[in-house]
Amino acid sequence: MSSIDPVCGMTVNPATAAGHADYQGKTYHFCSQHCVQAFKADPAKFLGKKAAAAPLDAGAQYTCPMHPEIVQIGPGSCPKCGMALVPMAGAEEDDSELRDLTRRLWVSAALSVPLVLLAMAPMFGWAKSYQLLELALATPVVLWGGWPFFRKFWLSLKNRSPNMYTLIGLGVALAYGYSVLAVLAPGIFPHEFMMHESGEVGAYFEAAAVIVTLVMVGEVMQLRAMGQTSQAIRQLLSLAPNTALRIEPDGQEREVSLSEVNINDRLRVRPGEKIPVDGAVLEGASNVDESMITGEPVPAPKTAGARVTGATLNGNGSLVIRAERVGADTLLARIVHMVAQAQRTRAPVQRLADLVATYFVATVIAIALLTAVVWGVWGPEPRLVYALVNAVAVLIIACPCAVGLATPISITVAMGQGALNGILFRNAEAVEKLREIDTLVVDKTGTLTLGRPQLVDLAVDGIDESTALQLVASVERASEHPLAQALVGAAEARGIRLQPVADFFTATGQGAVGSVNGRQVAVGSTAFMQAAGIPQGLNARAEALRAQGKTVIFAAIDARVAAVIAVADPIKQTTPEAVAALKALGVRLVMLSGDAQQTAQAVGQQLGIDEVIGGVLPEHKAERVKALQAKGHFVAMAGDGINDAPALAQANVGIAMGTGTDVAIESAGVTLVKGDLRGIAKAMRLSRATMRNVKQNLFFAFLYNALGVPIAAGVLYPLFGVLLSPIFAGAAMAMSSVSVVSNALRLRRVRL
Length: 752
Description:
Elements (H helix, E strand, L loop, with lengths): L2 E2 L6 E2 L6 E5 L2 E5 L2 H9 L1 H5 L13 E3 L7 E3 L12 E2 L8 H24 L11 H15 L1 H12 L5 H21 L20 H25 L1 H7 L5 E5 L5 E5 L8 E4 L8 E7 L1 E4 L1 H4 L5 E3 L4 E2 L4 E2 L4 E7 L5 H12 L7 H29 L4 H15 L2 H21 L2 E3 L2 H7 L4 E5 H5 L5 E7 L4 H12 L5 H12 L8 E6 L3 E6 L2 E6 L1 H6 L7 H9 L3 E7 L3 E8 L6 H10 L3 E5 L4 H11 L3 E3 L7 H10 L4 E5 L5 H6 L2 E5 L12 E3 L5 H36 L3 H4 L5 H20 L7
Parallel strand pairs: 18-25, 18-27, 25-26, 27-28, 28-29
Antiparallel strand pairs: 1-2, 3-4, 5-6, 5-7, 8-9, 8-10, 10-16, 11-14, 11-16, 12-13, 12-15, 17-29, 19-24, 20-21, 21-22, 22-23, 23-24
């Protein structure tokens, strides 16, 4: 028996849960330790939610494409719009409703064909009436075939939520009910209702039956198309292997289920196999195809110490890896969960469709009543028959479903395609906003560069290089700054033994001080030295190094500058291509860096960056973003998602540059699984294509209703003698939603 994690809402199998907690006599199971800790910190916060954990017989969650806030376990109908609920990302699809509706469709179609032929009998010169036979053929179509629609019609009244099934139910009930009375109690009708040829009251069984059948055709096509909207997510899920080859403590290798793999297990990955979980390579070397996660077609080389991601494909080498993230904590599981949550959000453009849908059904019913009155009072004879037929046509042709589906379907497909290309949108708003970006602010380290600085120059004054590097690296060993780690790595590579540090102090992004073997050592920027009151030294050498685009660090020993250190962070090979792609999209690039202006400017000129701002501390990046926004720019900020969190939050769209399993999924509106600036260009192209698609859907949905309803009401009759049969109105209504979904599915073929 499955349950729902009360923190994140994911389905959890208690047997493989990451943890559990008891609260008020109940046991709750969780998909990850993060959820366990969050729950224990404040249980009441999560148990008040609709998705509070409770034992459930079926774990698959379903939601409504038009109303993503509707979530339930198992398939069913939306209480607001009546649409069939669809499985959320990660849920196993249940096609029981599609199979049931398909069965009803075939039976209804088989009965509707002879029914239409009988209704056309007078056209072939058959004078004999077949109304009783028409009643016999139409009844199972309307009452059995159309039962799902009538049920949804009743629910729309019960829930006081009028929708497309309100209109369908009214229209079919009017046509069928009128026809039954016409056959069984013709005496209650005025003489105007009699047909001249047979003297009988005209019946519209074929209209009622064919409308039901055509609506079912549309429903079946729509359900089939909707099943393709989350195909990208199902494709990701299918990538995960079911088993892993675990190396036991005695050295034996045993194939186990993926659910049995624990953190720190040693796993063998043979050539051509999928990597089972996220981890680190312990032994071996190979090339790993990570395209299913990052969208990059070129395999990545992996050797000892490299990170690997679950579901990626091993090449022709054998690897031994250590499991680091399993179950719901793997990158693949987190991607699926993030996309599932994001697909339940609404884009701002959806507000227009929601506003229209709020008043749509009531307006259509009012138009149908007005149509009946106008035709009944001023129409030609038999005016009452015209009044009924045209009112039914108005009810049937109107389709609020097409308007409601226009935005969420496109967003759903786009998010799935983004996930396949290593682009994760936190919500629908990020998809919409990204297309409007005119300025992109990028952090240099880790975004434009590899983020792995290396010592490239060391100039000393009054001290030998080894001693200077020993003192500097000893102080920097206590710092987590990337430049500090570069100095420590250089010392270790030269075999220099580091010494203990006393009185250590660090100023974030500026420098550090400490005492090593009784000598006072200060390491940092020019500003840091000035703040410490240390006279400048080696300035000419520092300027020469900065001119080469290198980051310069000063080292002062006993209050005197004794060394100037140059560190360089190699530019990523993909960065020039990414910069060119972004400029082609009309984006202005601004680089922020903590390096001195001269150093940052050298890198910016090399890449063709539009504006370079150096000497920016992490806490001041948000101010720079705000200043650009004050000038009227729509700004995106790309950073590592952790140190740049304030700037990411301030930007109109924050973009977290992640790498492998360290992706900062929760930190920004958009996360790029692979730390590659080209992903931003892809994300912008996807955003622009998506919003074009949404506008197309909204345009055709509004145009369809703006033209269809008046034509069904009979506005063309006075000029051209044209009336729209309820049968054609039903066909048009059925196809409108299908056309919207089909147009949205074109996003699966968009080239990024």
